[in-house]
Amino acid sequence: MADWVTISSLATAGGTLVLALATFASVRSANRSARVAEESLLASVRPLLVPTRFDDPTLKVGFGDDHWVHVHGGTGSIEITDEVIYMTISLRNAGSGIAVLHGWRLGTAEALTVQERPPIEEFRRQQRDIYIPAGDIYFWQGALRDAADPDRALVEKQVTAGERTIVDVLYGDQHGGQRVVSRFTLIPRDEGMCLVSLARQWNVDRPDPR
Questions:
Q1: pLDDT tens for residues 19-59?
Q2: How far is CA 139 from the centre of its chain?
Q3: Is residue 86 classed as helix, strand or coil in its secondary structure?
């Protein structure tokens, strides 16, 4: 004679197991969909800074002391005065989101052989917010005003010797995330104008692409 209590219990257990498996598959699928949706959202607001092209318009850059610099497409500038060193780079945002510039640091040509991302704590904070819309051009700017600043002596030496100056720019998206460090090189030419090239990019908040 059939043990209906046992059969009923087994049937209930089997149904529960099937339901659990279905729930697990559904949750896993939902999590995967959520990750895909999140990555798509992040990609839609992800900036990527590169040098401008030589045929891009000239930009007029103003500093806090009412000093003005004209920077042409594909170039930057290093202007040395008795009190201040003014630096600029003409930039294009090749990404799909607004780029917000956070800070910068200087280096020597030897930095080009370094593969590791520079420490974030070494960056100087931008004195004002600089936003570069997606697909548009704008600029980076920095100034050295302290006569005792070791970077001032470094830049003066590099410009006098015709050596390239390394500028690491830290930026992110409009929400403060997806931070990137871009390493640009400024090669001195005539009257403070420098040719600009992009040496390397590092992701700060996400894995590097290499």
A1: 777 676 666 655 666 565 556 667 788 999 999 999 999 99
A2: 14
A3: strand
Instruction: Tell whether pTM > 0.85.
Output: no
Pure H helices in 87-149: none
Non-local CB neighbours of 139 within 8 Å, separated by 6+ positions: 59, 61, 71, 88, 89, 90, 91, 130
- The Cβ of residue 199 has, within 10 Å, a number of other Cβ atoms equal to 14
Long-range contact pairs involving 76-82 (C-beta distance under 8 Å, separation at least 24): 76/167, 76/184, 76/186, 76/193, 76/194, 76/195, 76/196, 77/192, 77/193, 77/194, 78/155, 78/159, 78/165, 78/186, 78/188, 78/192, 78/194, 79/192, 80/155, 80/156, 80/159, 80/192
The rounded distance, in Å, linking the Cα atoms of 65 and 2 is 95
Q: What is the pLDDT of residue 28?
A: 67
> From residue 26, how far is each of 17, 33, 172 by CA, in Å?
14, 10, 34
* Contact assessment for residue 119 and residue 187, using Cβ atoms and an 8 Å cutoff: no
Instruction: Match 């290499």 to its residue by tokens.
Output: 210
**How many whole angstroms separate alpha carbon 42 and alpha carbon 48?**
13
Contact 40, 88 (CB under 8 A): no
Backbone angles phi, psi at 74, to 5 degrees: 75, 10
